[in-house]
Amino acid sequence: MVGPVDSDEPIVIVRFDRRTHMFGPPNDEAFAGHPLAKRGLKPYGAFRIENSSWIRRLERMNSVHSQHRAENYWKLQHLVFSFHDSTFECVCLKFDIRTAQGSIKDVIPEMVELLDWGGSDHPR
User: Fold this and answer.
1) Is 118 helix (H, G, I), strand (E, B) or coil?
2) Which of 43, 79, 89, 111 has the smallest number of CB atoms closer than 10 Å to its CB?
């Protein structure tokens, strides 16, 4: 566990382009209830979901739009990060990973800079 103030542990910062995400349940004790658990998804891991039904649903929802292009969905990725108390899932086109050392407090300035309030939708 990386401490909020006093820690010298490795930290990973992952930045995604903005598409869609879910954050919350299941935790590790209820992970068997996740729809993808029977297909190999496990707690305490990072996963890329191949042939994602979530991406297919997003494409179908958008198909009513007059400017819809199904091919815009072909390169999207469905990623899952499962933790002790929660699970983070996202659909993104791109992401980047950075490592740091220290506490949460130590990396907040870098995280704020990565938010890119200027409006860029894609990691650099």
Assistant:
1) coil
2) 111
